[in-house]
Write a structure and sequence with these properties.
51% helix; DNA-binding; alpha+beta; Topoisomerase I, Chain A, domain 3; Topoisomerase I, Chain A, domain 4
DNA sequence: ACTCTAGACTCAGAAAGATAATA
DNA sequence: TTATTATCTTTCTGAGTCTAGAG
């Protein structure tokens, strides 16, 4: 079925007999009215008087208070998503084959409740029943339902601030730290395997090199036609790379160009070690562009091999490890103890950015980017003018002091000098701000900060350089990383 | 030993909402 | 001061990773 037919079918299924008589073709339908209806509704909500908005807020708070928490092991814990997802049109990311399908409303009859046998079992809404109530303490979810677009299960789970999630997070970083201890051995091993007689091993070793060096994701195989066409390391196809014996003065360059998770483009030109280059040539021999680059490899065999190298090691641990170690190294390289707090935070953001670039965390350029950049430039220009003026004034004051040789005119020179220095510093600050902004234009820092960087590195850095943790982590982040803030002293090393 | 699938969990950027800065 | 705008925070839910178990 074509995507369009699928959409139409999914909408047809919701239509009454009467509607089906009238509506035969979706492309003949005019949706401007319904679109206007929703736009208007949105505007109306925004234009609501203050006290009405206040009321809505209070109601939301009440819901949060009543449904937003659970008791786990005797502790009241915040729930991450305590509402089921509302019905609507499925969008998906990128060129998704199921775009436009109807996502159905979830009814109590769809919902499985998971709680303790001896707990107060939540009541379904009046006149309804739960699909099931179970008491499974081997999983962490509190409720679940099956979603109708991909037929996958959705869960109600705890907030990242919870003890359960925090401990899991800590564990994740501990595994990555263990990798630190054996990574040299593993690197030696895969270099050795580049020369293996077995094709499987060679492919595995080259893939692992990519995962390690470029922080690529594992790349599970996906069901065709069910999702957008994206790939990771193991699912790379011949068409996704180009080999250059020599490019821009560098040897053995691999040019990557593919869509990764969330249809984010990965584009990179990387010089690789010669055996890797030779192997890639070999892997690509007699293949079509659409063929798998690593035809003897999948994530399951790769992870099995990694498990043999270290307990708990999987492909994604390399991402965590390389992200965290990069942060630590960059912080060390970029921070000067004599810098002021603002400069230190700038260094932190630079280090964070290095990681985000490694992990290919991108964002759309903010809507107000150009404008705010212009504003900053205006400020810089104004500051430059002030600076020029101050320079002249200093010159005049110096001449004055030379002529008059009195105390007053001398102290005037000092004053002008101080002003000049102050203005110069302000200009510097503005300029670094501008560079920082420009470099950050399309880089998303949040994902790595929240998911890849061992928070203890940041906490230790804060303590070491006298930067308040609040400057690095906002309230939510401090709650999520409470375990690390508690645990790490300035001596912590990843 | 393998493939396939279901299940459970982490990780992902956009959009909405709240707050701070600025005119 | 207040209204507007820029920026930061929170919410949302889709898209991955990885494991276990059946055949």
């Amino acid at each position: 079925m074509s995507p369009f037919q699928m959409k139409f079918t999914s909408i047809m299924m919701e239509m009454t007999v009467e509607e089906k008589k009238i509506i035969k073709r979706l492309d003949k339908c005019d949706f401007t009215e319904i679109h206007k209806y929703f736009v208007d509704k949105n505007e109306a909500r925004k234009a609501l008087p203050k006290e009405e908005k206040q009321k809505l807020k209070e109601e939301a708070d009440r819901l949060q208070e009543e449904f937003g928490y659970c008791i786990l092991d005797g502790h009241r814990e915040k729930i991450g998503n305590f509402k089921t997802e509302p019905p609507g049109l499925f969008r998906g990311r990128g060129d998704h084959p199921k775009m436009g399908m109807l996502k159905k409303r979830i009814m109590p009859e769809d919902v499985i409740i998971n709680c303790s046998r001896d707990s107060k079992i939540p009541e379904p809404p009046p006149g309804h029943k739960w699909k099931e109530v179970r008491f499974d303490n081997t999983v962490t979810w509190l409720a679940s339902w099956t979603e109708n677009i991909q037929n996958s299960i959705k869960y109600i789970m705890l907030n990242p601030s919870s003890k359960l999630k925090g401990e899991k997070d800590w564990q994740k970083y501990e595994v990555a730290r263990r990798l630190k201890g054996v990574v040299d051995k593993i690197r030696f091993q895969y270099r050795f395997d580049w020369k293996s007689r077995e094709m499987r091993k060679r492919q595995r070793a080259v893939a692992l090199y990519f995962i390690d060096k470029l922080a690529l994701r594992a790349g599970n195989e996906k069901e065709e036609g069910e999702t957008a066409d994206t790939v990771g390391c193991c699912s790379l196809r011949v068409e996704h790379i180009q080999l250059h014996h020599e490019l821009d003065g560098q040897e053995h360059v691999v040019e990557f160009d593919f869509l990764g998770k969330d249809c984010i483009r990965y584009y990179n030109k990387v010089p690789v070690e010669k055996p890797v280059f030779k192997n890639l040539q070999l892997f690509m021999e007699n293949k079509d562009p659409g063929d798998d680059l690593f035809d003897r490899l999948n994530t399951s065999t790769l992870n099995k091999h990694l498990q043999d190298l270290m307990d708990g090691l999987t492909a994604k641990v390399f991402r965590t490890y390389n992200a965290s170690i990069t942060l630590q190294e960059q912080l060390k390289a970029l921070t000067s103890a004599e810098d002021n707090i603002a400069a230190k935070i700038l260094s932190y953001n630079r280090a964070n950015r290095a990681v985000a670039i490694l992990c290919n965390h991108q964002r759309a350029t903010p809507k107000t980017f150009e404008k705010s950049m212009q504003n900053l430039q205006t400020k810089i220009d104004a500051k430059k003018e002030q600076l020029a003026m101050a320079k002249q004034e200093l010159k005049r004051a110096k001449a004055d002091a030379k002529a008059r040789k009195d105390v007053k005119s001398k102290s005037n020179v000092d004053k002008k000098k101080k002003l000049l220095a102050k203005l110069e510093e302000q200009l510097m600050k503005l300029c670094t701000q501008a560079t920082d902004k420009e470099e950050n234009k399309q880089v998303a820092l949040g994902t790595s900060k929240l998911n890849y960087l061992d928070p203890r590195i940041s906490v230790a850095w804060c303590k070491k350089f006298g930067v308040p943790v609040e400057k690095i982590y906002n309230k939510t982040q401090r709650e999520k990383f409470a375990w690390a803030i508690d645990m790490a002293d300035e001596e912590f090393e990843f």
